[in-house]
Task: structure prediction
Amino acid sequence: MERALTAKGAATRQRIVEGAALLIREQGVPNVGLEDIRMATATSKSQLFHYFPAGKADLMLSVAAHEAELVIAEQMPHLGDLTSWRKWQAWRRRVVQIYDAQRQRCTLSALTAQLGTGDPATREIVTTLLDRWQGYLVAGVQALKDSGEADPGIDPLVAATSILTAITGGAGMLQATDRISYLDIALTDTIEGLRRPTARTRRKSA
Result:
């Protein structure tokens, strides 16, 4: 059970987590030790272990949770308002922009690779992130169906899962090849599949 922190304590802990996340983005997980984080965040050794009793493993999990929150936050407000075809396109551009800027510096991917998703705590962070992300996409697909802009036969959960898979798969290929095209093409094509058949026909003939 996590200890209750004062407002000052919570702010200090958050400062350490954010500082560690920034350092890891710049240098990579294997190159960052507790001493590096301590120096970068102007934190004493006793203070560091006060907030993260298990040391680096504890801190890395906290950084992973922080980065998972950022995955959603960086897509807002677009992800939370997928209520029209135009807004879906704006969100798609935002996602591609985010991953294009990150390239090899995706802290969450680096941390999950380092910590291993076989660890229950890491797996919970990743699963919670994907479930939240999928929930926004399901709501967005349903909104398109309700407005008549999406194929009425589409299952929102299935469509949302395909879109999320296109993103995560494309992001993995980006990490391996440094090519954003995999993500861009997969996401564009999957979203295009949401459109009503008549709309897709008009687009191709235009």
The radius of gyration is 20 Å. The mean pLDDT is 89.
